[in-house]
Write a structure and sequence with these properties.
The chain is an alpha+beta fold. Helix content is about 30%, strand content about 20%. It starts with a strand and ends with a strand. The relative contact order is 0.19. The structure holds coenzyme A.
Length: about 350
């Protein structure tokens, strides 16, 4: 899907009015993992860039993480919950398979005027959410859209499998979208979004059980089908190639060159993936904020949480060009180019 604005210059743009993030308090360090599986701090740090990750407490669910991030983002956007028209929760770990996590969040938030639904695009969920919300805001169907990436993958991994348990952490990130405010500079807003899917790659990263193909039974649990299953090497290769190509396409679409990008906000699955993408795009590493060392791969939360960190720190100046990108199971991926 290509949703740029070439030929649609009179369509009002949407803008990211507020951001928020939340990660549970409990920290699981690499040293903790050394006691659980046959791994080492050195291996995890070198191969992934991760030093620690957060793990939700029992009773703390995806909607609770999403709520904390949402409240922050709404505060920054000076938006009351009852002013929200649309809630999109990007998650592959909803509180319940039915109804949507967005329904639970809508109630907890008191956003009684919002319609709400979940997006299933794994680690690419927030970029999908941003692109969808952008359409609703542009067309005037929503004046305020709340997009949350929230995942609790520590409950979906096999803590005896060193291939996956060292990678993931729990968190939520949120963004509030609305029309570009008059105080923003000329030409600001979401300039383009591009979404992609290659469904031939479903087998390299998946949770095989628990859905309608393999409903939960004693047997599926015994076979551990309810846990994340991943071919790390294939995911790695695919991710680098896809993110580079997508970013080149986004830059070309807007008539930009890579050196015009001020900030890269990328989903962080592995620091080496991000570094390889930046190197191929010839974008200096200092333009990309990395926080995977503290949080691990937080799936759909990673990109909005990173955006919130640099936004709150005042690192993004008016007029800066922000290149956002994410990729996840599907394989699904996408980009957004944003003029702050
Ligand atoms: C998972 C990943 C870190 C593995 O790194 P890698 O350099 O590709 O490592 P390999 O898979 O080639 O494994 C190398 C060896 O380390 C071992 N290994 C795997 N996990 C390990 C761990 N936690 N500790 C120690 N050794 C480990 C493997 O068993 C393998 O051993 P072998 O050579 O004896 O078979 C990397 O492939 C990756 O990050 N892939 C992308 C994953 C991802 O992004 N997933 C989410 C997408 S949104």
């Amino acid at each position: 899907m290509n949703r740029g604005r070439k030929g649609f210059t009179d369509v009002p743009r949407s803008y990211i009015l507020g951001t928020g993030a939340y990660a549970p308090e409990t920290v699981v360090t690499n040293a903790d993992l050394e006691k659980m599986v046959n791994t080492s701090d050195a291996w995890i740090s070198e191969r992934t860039g991760i030093h620690e990750r957060r793990r939700a407490q029992p009773g703390e669910n995806t909607s609770d993480l999403a709520l904390r991030a949402s409240i922050q983002a709404l505060e920054m956007a000076h938006t009351r919950p009852d002013e929200v028209d649309l809630i999109l929760v990007a998650t592959v770990t909803p509180d319940t398979l039915m109804p949507a996590c967005a329904a639970t969040l809508q109630y907890k938030l008191g956003a009684k005027n919002a319609f709400a639904f979940d997006i299933s695009a794994a680690c690419a969920g927030s970029i999908y959410g941003l692109a969808i919300a952008d359409q609703f805001v542009q067309t005037g169907k929503a004046k305020r859209a709340l997009v949350i990436g929230a995942d609790l993958l520590t409950r979906m991994i096999d803590w005896t499998d060193r291939n996956t348990c060292v990678l993931f952490g729990d968190a939520a990130g949120a963004m509030v979208l609305g029309p570009v405010p008059p105080s923003s500079g000329k030409g600001s807003g979401i300039l383009s979004t591009h979404l992609y899917m290659d469904g031939s790659q479903t087998g390299i990263l998946l949770i095989p059980g628990g859905g309608s193909a393999h409903p939960p039974t004693e047997e599926t649990v015994k076979q551990k089908l309810h846990y994340v299953s991943m071919n790390g090497r294939e995911v790695y290769k695919f991710a680098v190639r896809a993110l580079v190509d997508a970013t080149v396409a986004a830059l070309e679409h807007n008539g930009f060159t890579a050196d015009q990008v001020d900030h890269v906000v990328a989903h962080q699955a592995n620091v080496r993936i991000v570094e390889a993408v930046l190197e191929r795009l010839k974008i200096p590493a200092r333009k990309c904020h990395i926080n995977i060392s503290k949080y691990g791969n937080t799936s759909s939360a990673s990109m909005p949480m990173t955006l919130d960190e640099i936004n709150r720190a005042g690192k993004i100046k008016k007029g800066d060009l922000v290149a956002m990108m994410a990729i996840g199971a599907g394989m699904a991926w996408g980009t957004a180019m944003v003029r702050w």
